[in-house]
């Protein structure tokens, strides 16, 4: 229990203090880049448009199994090797290996420039900043649209970038953390209904939904606790999102901040009619993005306390 607690605490401390530094990224890249290369290789082999939907779906299942084998195999082997070589000091190695799988600091640092640009009335800069974290078209967003996009991304990513990696590390150690990151990467790359993915990405999307099921609900509860409210909106509106999980944290954020989020958006020039989530103002601004970041920091503090406490109970 002490080793797991120390490893998790070290990984969290490094992430909160440093994020994933640009110098390290330039020299080493990031482990998810390795997953992306595996996914790309599998897609070239198994996602052929002339094949039937059933065959492409089967190859998507094989891709997921390959990814899990790589992630769990490498993480498990490295964890075992660290324990064998370092003995009682293995927690340092395990903490270092877990560090890049967490994104508490980097998520905050990607959203903060949006708030700063909006605060200085730099709409073009705010659009550029928010384009780094959302998939929708940003070139024509007004200030409220930019602010809502940043807050929505922060809410959704609180699950898959923060709560879920911690959840799976507590539950299954280093292999659990990196298995989750592998599947989440696959979902972001191929888990789409649109061509050319469709059947090939089905397994990645469904498994990602399953792995986020509990973390999303935990994250939503923590956002409401950190915000001192939002429960009614959470309960009423969590199902208004296309994702079975993202709606939980987004509704919690909307309720806690007293905002309306989501609504109609444009992807690749095509307008998509989405339901509104929340019952407050839709005219969000820089102050609302700053409030969302404060709420996020409080929710992260609660999540860290829950994670460390869970290790004591689970492993004790």
TrEMBL record:
Domain of life: Bacteria
Subcellular location, record wording: Cell membrane
Listed InterPro entries: Cobalamin_biosynth_CobD/CbiB
Transmembrane feature ranges: 58-78, 84-104, 158-180, 216-235, 295-314
Membrane topology label: Multi-pass membrane protein
Pathway: Cofactor biosynthesis; adenosylcobalamin biosynthesis
GO MF: adenosylcobinamide-phosphate synthase activity
Entry keyword set: Cell membrane, Cobalamin biosynthesis, Ligase, Membrane, Transmembrane, Transmembrane helix
Family indicated by similarity: Belongs to the CobD/CbiB family.
Primary role: Converts cobyric acid to cobinamide by the addition of aminopropanol on the F carboxylic group.
Name of the protein this chain belongs to: Cobalamin biosynthesis protein CobD
Encoding gene, per UniProt annotation: cobD
């Amino acid at each position: 229990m002490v080793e797991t607690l120390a490893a998790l605490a070290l990984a969290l401390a490094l992430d909160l203090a440093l994020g994933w530094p640009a110098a390290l990224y330039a020299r080493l890249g990031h482990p998810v880049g390795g997953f992306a290369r595996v996914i790309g290789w599998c897609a070239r082999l198994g996602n052929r448009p002339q094949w039937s939907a059933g065959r492409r779906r089967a190859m998507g299942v094989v891709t997921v199994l390959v990814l899990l084998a790589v992630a769990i195999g490498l993480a498990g082997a490295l964890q075992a090797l660290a324990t064998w070589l370092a003995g009682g000091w293995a927690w340092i190695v395990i903490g270092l290996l877990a560090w890049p799988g967490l994104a508490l600091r980097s998520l905050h640092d990607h959203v903060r420039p949006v708030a700063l640009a909006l605060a200085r009335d730099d709409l073009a800069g705010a659009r550029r900043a928010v384009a780094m974290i959302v998939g929708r078209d940003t070139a024509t967003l007004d200030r409220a649209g930019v602010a809502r996009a940043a807050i929505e991304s922060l809410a959704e990513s609180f699950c898959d970038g923060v709560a879920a990696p911690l959840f799976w590390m507590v539950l299954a150690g280093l292999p659990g953390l990196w298995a989750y990151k592998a599947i989440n990467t696959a979902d972001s790359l191929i888990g789409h209904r649109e061509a050319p993915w469709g059947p090939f990405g089905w397994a990645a999307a469904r498994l990602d939904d399953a792995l986020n099921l509990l973390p999303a609900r935990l994250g939503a509860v923590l956002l409401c606790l950190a915000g001192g409210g939002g429960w009614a909106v959470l309960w009423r509106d969590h199902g208004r999102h296309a994702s079975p999980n993202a709606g939980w944290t987004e509704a919690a954020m909307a309720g806690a901040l007293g905002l309306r989020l989501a609504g109609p958006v444009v992807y690749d020039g095509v307008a998509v009619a989405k339901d509104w989530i929340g019952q407050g103002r839709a005219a969000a601004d820089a102050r609302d993005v700053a409030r969302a970041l404060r709420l996020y920091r409080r929710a992260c503090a609660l999540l860290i306390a829950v994670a460390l406490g869970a290790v004591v109970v689970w492993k004790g």
